[in-house]
Fold:
Amino acid sequence: MAPASVRITGWGMYAPERVLTNADLEKLVDTSDEWIRSRTGIRERRVAAPHESTATLAAVAGKRAIAVAGLAPDDIDLILVATLTPDYWMPSTAALVKEAIGNRTAAAMDVMAACSGFVYAYATADSFVRSGMYRNVLVCGAELLTRFLDFSDRNTCILFGDGAGAVVVSASDEPGGGMGGLELTTDPDGAYMIWLPSGGSRSPVSGETVRRGEHFIRMEGRETYRFATKTLATSALKAIERAGWTLDQIDLVIPHQANIRIIESVAKGLGMSMDKMFVNVDRYGNTSAASVGIALAEAVDSGRIKVGDRIVFVAFGAGFTSGAVALEWTADPLNGRRAASVEPVASVRAPLDWDSVDPMPPRLMAVLESGPPVPLDDVVPGEPEHARVP
Ligand code: UT7
Structure:
């Protein structure tokens, strides 16, 4: 039976412990902390440990979201994992997350829409619950991008980081709240603006593809930037209009955390002040499909969202995809405290007769092993701080 409404009941995030600063990257490529901060707003990003994978990152964030929702793992009917850095091509990362969170009953599948993945997966979850098919869907956005980066390419390696964010989308017997408006787009003209050439049917992995470095992410930064600044405000506006709301009714926008300049252009395009934009790109870099989920969890837990607030998720990414959701927040933010009961560990059963090669990029490892991260004197741990272009 179709529910009276569909609401977010749980949220959670996980960021690996290890920090990679701009100063660390200066040791790897011809770049500078000043260039990275002024062009992107990024100060640091996280790097997953060798024993972690996309599925384990997603599982920790997912377990936290389930705890916050006050549910047990088996209450989840469907698990969606948005990622462009899956553990394997098959099985799906969602199947591995199902085992890692201790769920025995759910269906599970991945959603591939690159950095817009969390918004696409959220929209998918909402549709399943709205139709009456499922009551609780776990949506995880998770990425382990540092294993797909060429740490000799300064155009890409300074931008991305690892992490996961998750929400539980639930049926409610109370009317009102939840998603009011949605906009999803895909523009294949941008198909090769951010892409990973080898490993698919067009170009299976071989010694030659590895020699050419085609197993790394490639990006046309300027074109991607142009697309982002064109699409984000328009997508957000369409979702807000479909909800029947006006811009002045929006309390907070949670944009994909790719670049502070892109976020500032969304604010400008919407005629909103930066106070209404949630920003944490300074501390995590671009975590692709994880970024909106991580930002949402931090926004709720830091008191930026209260019951009745109207918020917008908006993202863009490879494809080119973009998407926006306008929704009314209904959950008690204090439920976020329940996530503290979840340990920051998860494990996925290894295959019996196979072991992976060392997953860590050698150039990155050399820097990580060269000493502790350079401390930042102006960041208070645990408190999200706005990045600013100096
Ligand atoms: O989720 C979607 C993922 N992708 C994105 O969000 C990327 C969107 N694009 C961007 O954020 C920006 O285009 C970048 C941050 C990637 C680049 O910033 P930009 O202001 O567009 O710089 P640019 O590409 O126009 O390059 C300016 C200069 C170039 O040198 P020349 O040609 O002027 O001599 C680059 O070679 O900066 C150089 N450059 C760098 N210099 C120092 C490029 N990367 C670096 C670097 N450090 N890391």
Observations:
- The chain has one domain: 5-344.
